[in-house]
Structures are given as C-alpha cells and as structure tokens.
Amino acid sequence: MSSTSHTDSAHDSVADANVAIITDFLNNTAADKVEAAALRLVAPDAVYISLNFDNPELKQIEPWAGTASGPEAYSSTFIRVQKYWTIEDFQVLDIFGAGENVAVFGKFTYRANATGTVFTSPLAVYAKVRDGKIVYFQFMEDTYASAASFRTGGSWTVQTDPDEPAYEVGPSR
C-alpha cells in the first residue's frame, strides 16, 4: 500500500507542478508580460487552439481564432485580445490537474474598444504540460457574445426548428 501512496503522491506533485505552470502563464497575460511568459513557459512546438479548430468566418472577426503553434501564437493572441477589448474582469474559479492535463474554469468581462459593448463569458481551458512546458492549450469562451460585442448593425435570419418559420436575431443597434 505504501508504494501506491508514493505513486499517488508523485502523480499529485506532477499535477500540482503543472497547475502552477498554467497559473503562472495566466497570471502573466498582460500585454507587457505575455511575450516573456510565453518564451519561458511554452514549448517551441506547442499547439494553441483559440475558440475553435478552424472557422474562417470567425477568424475575420477575431483573427486569433483557430489553431496555431509556438510561443508566439500564445503571446500574440493575448496581445490582440487586449487591443480589441478592455479586460474589466478575469477570474479563475477553479483549476485542477491530473498528470500532464490541467483544466481551468472561470469567467471574464470585456468591453469592446471599438463599440463600447460589454459582455461576460464563461471560460474553459484544457491544457497539457510536459517537462515543465505548456505543449497544448485550448481556450473556450462564448464566441457568440465576444463576436457580437463588435456588432454595429445588421441581423441574422435563422431557422433552428425545421417545423417553424425562420426568424430574425440580433437586431441592429
């Protein structure tokens, strides 16, 4: 039984170290700190998935959306986010790890710099850390709210229910 406890303890210490690395990165995402944090904490071939794997229409609105790699993918995302929005609040509500895997749950409130629109979104991060470096980081949020914060006009005609007529959403301001 003591060898199992030792193994569990070693596993927990790896998970704790990996949680600390993700926490360190998230605590250093301000525009003036994120490049150094990415160089220090992100592996050269690390994958960053922002919001989706590949959505060309969303990428027109949020150019960092999709899959990229390397420390620059991490830093440029956070730098551009701060150009597009003012971060009014960013809270990590829970973070935990198991081996190389780290999960983060939280929420944030941003104000679009171009429109003044404020929105609050949940956030989720699935990350992997190996040998003290982030190798995978998938950041999810309410992309409908984030993209809509830039809306200056227009609406969509949608049909969600095949038995009901189409309708308008997102009326012009």
Mind sketching the topology for me?
Blueprint: H1 2-26, H2 34-41, E1 42-50, H3 56-61, E2 66-69, H4 71-84, E3 85-98, E4 101-112, E5 118-130, E6 133-141, H5 143-148, E7 156-158, E8 167-169
Parallel strand pairs: 1-6
Antiparallel strand pairs: 1-2, 3-4, 4-5, 5-6, 7-8
Helix pairs in contact: 1-2, 2-4
Overview in brief:
The chain has 173 residues and is α+β, with helices and mostly antiparallel strands. 34% of the residues lie in helices and 39% in strands. α1 (2-26) runs antiparallel to α2 (34-41) and α2 (34-41) runs antiparallel to α4 (71-84).
Distance between the termini: 65 Å
Shape: globular
Give the CATH level 1 class.
Alpha Beta
What count of structural domains? 1
Can you summarize the main beta sheet?
6 strands, mixed
Write down the overall mean pLDDT. Answer: 93
| Helix content range | 25-40%
Query: How many helix segments?
Result: 5
User: What is the CATH fold-level name?
Assistant: Nuclear Transport Factor 2, Chain: A
Proportion of β residues? 35-45%
Which architecture per CATH? Roll
- Structural class call reads alpha+beta
* Uncertain ranges: 1-7
Which series of helices and strands comes N to C?
HHEHEHEEEEHEE
* CA-atom Rg in angstroms: 19 Å
Question: Largest sheet, order of strands side by side?
Answer: 2-1-6-5-4-3
The count of β-strands is 8
